[in-house]
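Demo today. Your pick:
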Amino acid sequence: MSRSWFGGLWLSLTMAGSVMSEPTYTQIPFEELTGWAADDHQAALDVFLNTCGDIRDPRWEILCDYARRGPEPRGFFEKFFRPVLMEDSEPMLFTGYFEPELPGARERGNDYQYPIYAVPDDLVPGEPYFTRREIDEDQPLRGKGLELAWLTDPVDLFFLQVQGSGRVRLPDGSMMRVGYGGKNSRNYSSVGRVLVERGIFEPHQVSAAVIRNWVRENREEGRALLWENESYVFFREVSEVPADLGPLGAMNRSITEGRTIAVDPAFVTLGAPVWIEKQGAEPMNRLMVAQDTGSAIKGAQRADIFFGTGADAGRAAGQIKDAGRMVVLLPSTIAHPLVVANR
C-alpha cells in the first residue's frame, strides 16, 4: 500500500522519542536462521519476482534476471545471497497491517457523510498542508470535486488512512479500491500512545479495536483524539487492480498476504528478501519480501506484516505486537563489503 503508513502504526509506542544509533551489520549462516529449511522458498521467490525488476541496481538486476529462469528456489537464495542482521539501538518490533473493506458510496447522502479525498491540486510534496483538524472542521477541500467516495463512519476513514489503502463496498455490491495518493506532510502521532499518556489504557491494552471503540463511545473527545494525529492521507482510485490481487505497495505492485512486509527503506532495500523470526502467541519463521513502507516503521529492526483484506485480516493484524528478529538477504556482492566495513 504505497502510501506510506500502514497498519499497526498506532502501535509504535516503544519508538516514541527514541534516538537510534548507527546500525551494525552481522552476517549469519543460513543454518542459523530458525526454520529456514522448512519454509516454502518457491512462494517467497514468486513474491520476490513480482518486484525485483524494479530495483534499480545492476547487482540486483543480475539476480532478478537469473530468478526469472526458474531456478531451484532454496538453492537460489543460498547461492547468491547472504543473510545480514542489521541492528540499531531499538529492539525488534513486529506489527501487522491489512486492507480494510468499508461500506461507502460515490455520492454523498443518507449515512454517507465522510469523504475520502483525492490529492488536492495545491498540495506540494514535502510542504506542510492543512492539518487533520483543519480539514475536518474548516472543510477547506469541500466543493473542489476531490471526493472519491463517502464513508459512514469517521473512525473508518481514520483507519483507512492508517492502513493507506482499502476497498469500498458500494451500495450495489460492487467494489471500489483506493490507494495512497499523498499526504499533508504533517507529523504522524500515535493516538494509542496519547490514550496511554492520559492514563485511559495501559500499553498492553491498546489495539486498533480498543481505539475504535473508545472513539465511538466518546464522540467529542474521540474526535479530538483523532486530531492529535495531524497527518492526513489523500487517495487515488486503483480499481484497475484485480480483486484477487493485493493492494498496491510502495513499489506500485500488488503486495501478498503473508509474504509482504513494510520496512524502513533507510535500512532495507525495497524489493529485498527478508527472513523474519517473529515471536509471540503465534510464532512466524518465514522468508518475506520488503515491498512496502510506513511513516511509523522506523529503524533497522522494525517491520509491519501484511495480513490480507477484510475484517478477519484486520483482527489478526491488530493482535500483532511481537519481538523477534529480521535478517535481510543481500546479494553477496553487497553483503560482504558492508559487513567488512563494519568490523
About this structure: The longest strand covers residues 175-183.
